[in-house]
Amino acid sequence: MNDHINIIQLLRKRLLLIAVFIGANFAAISQDRMIDQIVAVVGSNIILKSDIERSYREIMARGQAEEGDMKCQILEHLLTEKLLMAEAELDTTIEAMTPGQLNQELSNHMQHLVKSLGSERAVEAYFHKPIAQLRASFEEELRNAYLTGEMQKRIIKDVRVTPAEVRYSYRNMASKDIPVIPEQVEYAQISFYPQITLEEENKIKDRLREFKKRVEEGDNFTKLAVMYSEDPGSAPNGGEIGYMTRANLDPAYAAAAFNLRELKISNVVKSDFGYHIIQQIGRRGDEVNTRHILLKPHPSAEARQKALSSLDSLVNFIQKGDLKFDEAAFNFSSDKESRNNGGLAINTLTGASKWALDELPPDISRELATLQVGQLSKPFQTTDEKERVVFKVIKLISRTKEHKANVQEDYQALHDELMQQKRETAISDFIAKQQSKTYIHIDETYQNCNFKYTGWQK
After folding, report:
1. % residues pLDDT > 90 (the chain)
2. 86-128, pLDDT tens digit by residue?
3. What span, in angstroms and rounded, lies between the C-alpha atoms of 279 and 293?
4. What residues form DSSP beta bridges with 192?
5. Who is most buried in 136, 214, 233, 271, counting CB within 10 A?
6. Which helix H or strand E contains 319, and what residues bound it?
7. Surface-to-core class of residue 252, CB atoms within 10 Å of its CB (0-12 exposed, 13-18 middle, 19+ buried)
8. Distance between CA atoms of 311 and 190, rounded to whole angstroms?
9. What 3-state DSSP class applies to 393?
10. Domain spanning 198-295: which CATH class is it, in words?
11. Which fold would CATH assign to domain 183-195+300-401?
């Protein structure tokens, strides 16, 4: 009871401060602007209406709206976040997000918004704030989301599922509860990259050397990165990528970045992404902050035709039976990830070789739609995850039609489903425990929300 009285007193003090602030600044607030209000209190933390409205606008901008009352869902997310964060802050083994991680997440976050709305100017117009203010407001959200995620990991770290549990769960499922496995495919690939001419490489390197000279003579690195860098993630930020460890960087880039003194500029560096000049702008322990200008060499029309012809010849050998597909992939494919598996493509989302149709890259999906099991596609041009031109031929290994899961064919799917259920139960139990010992108040305007977790209303 004393704890509750202390919390209420704290809340009254906060409300008084807010009232004083509003009164002192009311003349500066435009008449059409809604005054913020507290919609929920969790322990000593408050949730404002503006928190919900901002999240709602962001979700709508990113096209991630779900069924149901989105604002109620956002409120429950914030309520849950406050509970988990309070516990995370007491756990001394949970470390906060590093500046490098925050910078990277923030860049990804802003890129997604810019891509969704079309431009930075459109983002500013949509949120009625300049980009710099938006980045600052998103920083706290990302830090909170990271701590919440780390706390959830702690809650579920000891959750296990045994084969016996999978079989028992499956035997006791009602027919209507047996999960439906969507159509899935397995495929293998052989990849050829067109050769980049020495002339093209020298042209790119000469241009980067010119940029380096201009900066050393007084030009602005940030401005040049915005104007010329072909890295869409960092170019809008003047080429800055934030604090990173060696493990987060391409090995060649990392070697150059960690050997630079502050504000010095590297010679031209070649990585899997292209060619860079790098400026070191901060060092902290095993992390370095850099900005860079990236230029990508582009293969000539002749080089593309040569790669296509070479791949076409290899396909002919395979189809005539002179060479097996997996041997050809192992000996000739340029794709490092799949060639040691005989070309078998691994689904990075699941770590398995099976792909649901909506998990496939669009170009691969189009080609597979025309193939029977065992058939090869014709060679086709596409781009890889680093946006480099590549020619591929793919082989359909298997196609499994949509069906109700069974233990023999779908053990992993059933295992994962049961694991997810047990993890959700562990988190639900933890939240119920925290709810029972935490002061929680929700404004009456949200009293009719259909929350996932019971126990918010007391």
Report:
1. 62
2. 888 888 888 888 877 787 788 778 878 887 888 888 888 888 8
3. 9
4. 391
5. 271
6. helix 301-319
7. middle
8. 8
9. strand
10. alpha beta
11. Chitinase A; domain 3 (3.10.50)
